[in-house]
Amino acid sequence: MMAALTSADVKATFDFIMNPANKSPKRGALRLVTSVEAPDDATVIFHLSQPYASFSVNLIPSAIGIVPANASADFSRHPIGSGPFRFLQQSQDEEVVLERNPEYFHDAPRIARVRFRVVPDGVVRALELRKGSADLEMSSLSPDIIPVLARQPDLAVSDRTGANFSYLGFNLEDAVLSHREIRQAPCVGDRPRSAHSLSPPWPGEAGWGRSAAEPNVAQYPYDPARAEQVLDAAGFPRKQDGIRAHLTLKCSTEEQARLIGAAFQEQWRRVGIQLELRPLELATLFSDVAKGNFQITYQRWVGANTDPDFFEYAFSSKRFPPDGANRGHYHNARVDALTDQIRVEMNQERKALCSEVQKILADDLPYLPLWFNDVVSVHRRSLCPLDLPSTGNYNFLTSLHPNHSR
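Given the sequence above, the corresponding structure tokens read:
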């Protein structure tokens, strides 16, 4: 039987994160915490230096997992928890196996075991589903493969609107990209689930949803002729070779990211911007972007953009890495002031503050919003229906009915 989760474990976890010597990437979210107390086994008291409206969001399991106070150095190889599933085994770069947690405090999952397999190639993932050696994937297949699999009698497709947000991030300390016209002019054209702002404009279980989104912001439809005029006026004329500027886009090695990068490359070429694509392994990509070693990056926010705290985290000049995610070193004094207010505001005034921030960001364009990613799963028909979450996490596995069919 596992030891009980107590407040001592919670306190030890947060004390570790808050210790600068440990260089935790989550420390920035707790910068307003001055101390943590555990007066008894079931009570934890956080002391903050000032009000923080989104503090509870930074305590949820998807943000921070509790580690036992007496955890050994190799805890990551043999983790334990109090969730619906417990860790069974893993093989590096191959698989992770979970099993039903018999000591879970809530309703136990209906499925006894979940095996997450690492299959880097999308075609191989599709073949695994087709031949029956895999039961489910989520948002990991290219769009052209999905209708082919949907014709299989034992496979089905489930989908829903998603909250995860794809964007181009710009390094505003770069000599070329510091010019707003360069960021605005070569914008991409029509796109599914277009993101004109950073908060998803539809309701859902993921945070504020529709109440945070501001629809009345500057938008940038693809208009090569207008882009040419803007770039000329901004002092970036075409040279003898027809090129105005050379830029580099860093993205992941994922097939979809590389295809999207190629589309940007072609569209920007038409207005005289030569874009070099540099696909990188995820760990290298994240490291480069955090260090400011990039000009443009194609990335995705997963979950974080569903709470107003995101605006400070990603755009306040007080939140450069490692204390936040303002990786492009964007600086706007008005945004700093507004996000300071958003942090402490607890009532409806918060929405008005968020709307003003979104309008400023749409003008300054530290990010070029692209789209919100639908959550799409191809799976065994016997697993229907799937209650997919808008953020694309795997919480639905706890309520999955493996023997249910249409």
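Residues 189-193 have pLDDT under 50 and may be disordered. Try to locate this feature in the token string yourself.
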